[in-house]
Amino acid sequence: MTGTIVRTPASSANLGAGFDVFGMALDLYADVGLGDSPQGAEQLDEQHPGRTAFARLGGDGPMWMRCNIPMARGLGFSGAVRVGAAALAVVQAGRQISSAVDDILEATTELEGHGDNVAASLHGGIVAFVDDRVIPFRLGPVLSAASFIAWVPDVTTSTNASRRSLPDTVARVDAVHNIGRATQFALAFAHDDPDLLRGAADDHLHQAWRVPSVAGAGAAIEAGGAAGAWCAWLSGSGPTVGMLCDSSIAADVAASLPANGHTKVLRIDTVGAHLR
Hints:
Layout: E1 5-13, E2 22-34, E3 42-43, H1 49-56, E4 63-67, H2 77-92, H3 101-112, H4 116-123, E5 126-130, E6 133-136, E7 147-153, H5 159-164, H6 172-190, H7 207-210, H8 217-226, E8 231-234, E9 241-245, H9 250-255, E10 261-267, E11 274-275
Antiparallel strand pairs: 1-2, 1-11, 2-4, 2-5, 3-4, 5-6, 7-9, 7-10, 8-9
Helix pairs in contact: 1-2, 2-3, 2-4, 3-4
């Protein structure tokens, strides 16, 4: 099985108001493989999150990773690596990835502590993760061709530390606000209507606490909207800000963002984890 490689996409989670529910796969990738590492790849030790996921589903022997997903930036690095490694263990055991998605999802959700990122990386596209079930969004021709702009500042965040900063209770008005915005976001894709995305990522559950802790994040959200992005949000727990826009203005939106971060112009990945 040496030479076997699984490719898994990055992800953006929450997508504004879909806290711990919505996830979007992106075309940055983690490749994991069996055997000794090729040039430019990293051999994974027993402490690596990918190695832990590999062992959880019975994987054995040396494995490596090559990855262009930045770590601790809110783009689903650990989720992508865990999904890819768990899928690699499945392939090593002689199974098809498609026949083991439930096993991969269960194991990686447990390791991550939440399933929105891993569900998106496993299935591709945009998904809702509800009661351990993955519900895919419809992707029509207009929004499937959208650009995802990532504004990535030169700082990192800890998801666990970020969660501890959130309040334990939520006001009813804020809960209702998020139900409405999350519904609006999902319906924008159901109708393939980018105009419905305007305001659909406005969140009252987590961003008010997280955005101020990232210098420039609030300015990036405002600047992206002013430059024509349909919506913008803090990707996962940050520090990256993600936004969707028409591909024809992607370069202009990227150029409008604060100078204390770099930008990536990406697309929605629709394939998910797969054997290369």
